[in-house]
Amino acid sequence: MSIPRIPRKEAERPASRPGVLGTIDIPGELRAIAAARAYVRGLPGVAGRPDVDQVELLVSELVANSMQYSDSGSRPCGMVRLVVRGDSHVLRVEVSDEGSAGTIPAVPAQVDPLSESGRGLWLVRELSSSWGWHERAAGGRVVWFEMAEDPG
């Protein structure tokens, strides 16, 4: 008798672990978003990708969410960690923050295309190969996305 496979939600999907391309800790301030984008764009293994603009956009969205919704952005000296991993098949970006008791990452059911906010995780879902999040055992939260290499 075989055990039926139960589909997993995006946030519960097992994570791949390609090699680390770079790690940076940035202050939990909105002005640090530009530094996060520039850091990722300049990493070997990212700079030459055809989807580098999308990667940079998604980094901006996740870091902005950390600043806006986690304790990292609401307390003095809050920090956000950005880890970029990659190999010849996938690029993975992880944004770790201090989490928040009041919010969890969720894609809105309805997205207003003219709105200036509220589309971040929707963009992450639509433009990445996969994405998800998990709480860290030591406290805080990690939100991640992956961009698969186009074999063609």
UniProtKB/TrEMBL annotation:
Molecular function terms, GO-annotated: ATP binding
CDD domains in the cross-refs: HATPase_RsbW-like
Residue stretches making up the Histidine kinase/HSP90-like ATPase domain: 27-145
Descriptive protein name: ATP-binding protein
Higher taxonomy: Bacteria, Bacillati, Actinomycetota, Actinomycetes, Streptosporangiales
Species assigned in the record: Sphaerisporangium corydalis
Alphabetical UniProt keywords: ATP-binding, Kinase, Nucleotide-binding, Serine/threonine-protein kinase, Transferase
Region spans: Disordered: 1-20
